[in-house]
Design goal:
Layout: E1 4-8, H1 21-31, H2 44-59, H3 63-74, H4 81-88, E2 93-96, E3 110-111, E4 125-128, E5 131-135, H5 150-166, H6 180-186, H7 195-201, E6 203-207, H8 216-231, E7 241-246, H9 247-252, H10 254-262, E8 265-270, H11 275-289
Parallel strand pairs: 1-2, 1-6, 2-5, 6-7, 7-8
Antiparallel strand pairs: 3-4, 4-5
Helix pairs in contact: 4-11, 5-8
């Protein structure tokens, strides 16, 4: 159960019929009377800030209201076959950037986070059956935690960097205060307490995640890990990172593939255009890699 973890993005939800991000953006603009704003080439976190700031000027919008609307909208996403197959994998930890609970299959009852975060998500975790789900960009049960805008991304990164590099000042007695990188070097106090720990201790399989360059929190984490492994020659980093992509996107997104390679991420190309078959092949690759008995 502890050989590997998953990092799962929103693309697996696209198999299910329902509202897309493009539809949601359109609905938000209509609801808050900012339809004149162009999407264009604006990075989504900046577009979110633009929508929010313009809506404030028009009607003094409370951000929690906007995030609650988004939370209610994405909560309508229905689980599909791939969600079920992911749950069947013999892995304890599933990390996700998604806000809803399709991966869990139901709204989790047990929040076992060592710190009850209201805004950021360094420790945010839920236990469902025999698995731990880490919603690293917030979850629908806590609308203020939903990570959308540039301000939130930067705050999340600040919390992450403190946890990894500088150490934390949380009042909770259950959280190790020393920086993760120091504990890894000293091989002390390595009990799993944050999803970030997994990026240094277990293989991570990344699927359904575009890893846009605006995901500054994740790109920082990949870069920091790679710098420690190669520049500082930290021999305690022995785990592997895998990124799955289609043949089409591997050819189109050459710049991203080069950056992933530089950051010690192995790219696995799956030549399959049908989305459901594509994810089934990814899961088969994982089963084969660890010689796991096939799920029936």
């Amino acid at each position: 159960m502890d050989k590997f973890s998953l990092l799962v993005g929103n693309d697996i939800n696209n198999i299910s019929p329902g509202i897309s991000w493009s539809d949601l953006l359109t609905n938000i603009k209509i609801k808050y009377h900012v339809t004149a704003l162009e999407n264009g080439q604006k990075p989504f976190p900046m577009l979110y800030e633009e929508i929010f700031l313009n809506a404030i000027k028009i009607q003094h919008l409370n951000e929690k209201e906007l995030k609650t609307y988004i939370s209610d909208s994405v909560s309508q996403i229905k689980q599909n076959e791939i969600h079920e197959l992911i749950r069947a994998l013999p892995t304890k930890n599933i990390i996700t950037t998604n806000y809803e609970f399709s991966l869990e299959g139901s709204i989790p009852k047990n929040n076992t986070s060592l710190v009850r975060e209201t805004t950021y998500s360094v420790f945010r975790r839920h236990e469902t059956n025999d698995k731990t789900y880490w919603h690293i960009h917030g979850d629908c049960d806590s609308p203020n935690s939903i990570n959308l805008g540039y301000e939130h991304y930067c705050g999340q990164l600040q919390k992450m960097r403190d946890y990894v590099v500088n150490g934390t000042n949380y009042t909770s007695d259950t959280v190790f205060k020393a920086a993760l990188i120091k504990r890894l070097k000293q091989k002390k106090n390595l009990q799993l307490q944050s999803w970030i720990d997994l990026f240094f201790t277990q293989d991570i399989h990344i699927l359904g995640l575009s890893l846009d360059f605006v995901e500054i929190d994740l790109w920082w984490l990949l870069t920091y890990r790679a710098r420690n492994k190669f520049y500082k020659k930290s021999n305690f980093i022995q785990n592997k990172l895998f990124y799955y992509t289609t043949k089409k996107w591997h050819q189109i997104a050459v710049d991203k593939m080069q950056l992933l390679g530089a950051n010690d991420v192995e790219i696995i190309v799956i030549d399959e255009s049908d989305k459901t078959k594509y994810y089934k092949r990814i899961l088969k690759e994982i089963y084969n890699r660890y010689q796991l008995p096939a799920h029936k």
